[in-house]
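Supplementary Methods, section 5.1.

A reviewer requested that the exact input to the structure prediction be made available. We therefore reproduce it here, unchanged from the version used in the analyses.
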Amino acid sequence: MIAEIIAVGSEMLTPHRQDTNSLFLTAGLNDLGVSVAFKTIVGDNRRHLVAAIRIAIARADIVLLSGGLGPTEDDLTRECLAQVLGVNLHRDTTILNALRARYAARKMAMPPNNARQADVLDGAHVLPNANGSAPGQYTDIVLPDASGQAFRKIIILLPGPPKELKPLFDFECRPRLSAALPAHYIARRQLRMALIPESQVDARCAPIYSQFEDVETTILAGHAEIQLHFVCSKHTLELAQQRVDTLADLIAREMGDDIFSDDGEDLEAVVLLMLGLREHTLAIAESCTGGWLGERLTSVPNSSRVFLGGAITYANALKASFTGVDPDLIAQHGAVSGPVARAMAEGIRFRTGATLGLSITGLAGPTPGTGPDADKPIGLVYIGLADGEDTQVRQLHITGDRERIRLWSTQHALELLRRSLM
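The structure derived from this sequence is encoded cell-by-cell as follows.
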C-alpha cells in the first residue's frame, strides 16, 4: 500500500517555515510497511485544498492531512474533505463540551468560532487529542474509481502542531493502521562513496540493481559523495532484508574500495574507527578550511580517543609558529603549495606527538591570493599526510564557490586518510 501526506498551511509556502511533520509520519508509516509515494504542501485555499485531496485519494491508499483543524475561517481541512467525499459534517456534543470545559478551567469564555473544532465528518472516528483542542479524525471507507471499481481508502486528519500530531499518531493512528493493514515490512540499506561521479557509479551499478525489480534503488549525489539507497517491502522482515542485502553485497563487490560505508556511516566516523583499529592518533593543520575538518572529526562521539587536535594556521606566521613551516619555504613556493602542505603535515605531527599528521592549504576564493600565490587559480588545494616515514601530498583543482571548495577539501583529506589506512 502507498500513502500520501498533505501538509496544510500557507505558512509552509514561505521561506520561514518548514513541514517537518511529514518526516515523522513517513517514518511511522514505513514502520508499518507503508511506502510514502507523495508529499504535498497546500496553502489555506479552499479550491487548492479540494483539488489536492481529490488527487491524493485517486492515487494513494492512505491519505494523511496535517493542519487546518483550528477554529479560524482559514482552517478548511474538515470542510474540504467533506466536500470531496460528499458527506456532511455534524457537530459532536462530546467534543463541544470538552472544549467548553477546557476554556472554563482557564476561567475564559470560549469564542464562538472554536465550536468549529467539534465538527466531525459523518462516519469518521474521532481521535482524542490530549495535547490540544483540535481532535483528529480517522475514516476507513470504500470509494469507486472512474470505472466503478471499488477501492478501500484510509483518510486521517491530524492537527498541525508537532507536539499534538506526534502523540496522536503514535497512540491513536498506529494501532488502527496496524489492525487494518496486512502485515508488511520494509528493509533498508545504504552504501556511501566519496568523490566519484554519479554517472560513473550508475554506469557500473545499473546492470546489477536493474535485475532487482522488487528493490527500490535511489542514487543521491551531493556533499562530495554518492549514496545508494535500497528499499524493499515484503510480508516478512527477513525476506525484505535478504533481498536488500543481496543487492547491496553485489554492488559492494562491483565498487570495491570505493565504498567507505555499507551501512550509512559518515566518512569521518569510518576514518576514526579505522584509526582506532590500527592504533593510530591524528593531528591536523588547516588553512583554507578554517577548522571545518576538525569540526567534522569532533562531531563523532568519543573521537578524542584517536584525534588529538590541531591548529587553524590561517596566517602564514601561524604556519611557521604552530607547525614549524620555514618562512623561506612560503616565500619561495607560496602558502598554497605542495612543499608547504608537506611541512604542515610533518610539523603538526611532530609538535603534537600524533602518529599521523594531516594538512590542508588552498585558495577558496572568491578573491585571489597574494604574494607568491597571486597567480594561482581559485580552487587550487594541497593536502598533506605524514606518518613519520613517508609524506603524501595531493594537488587538487576543485571547482565551485567558496563553501564547495572548503567542503570538498575536507572530503578529499578524509578520503586520502581512509585509503592510506586501508
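The first strand starts at residue 2 and ends at 8. These observations are discussed further in the main text.
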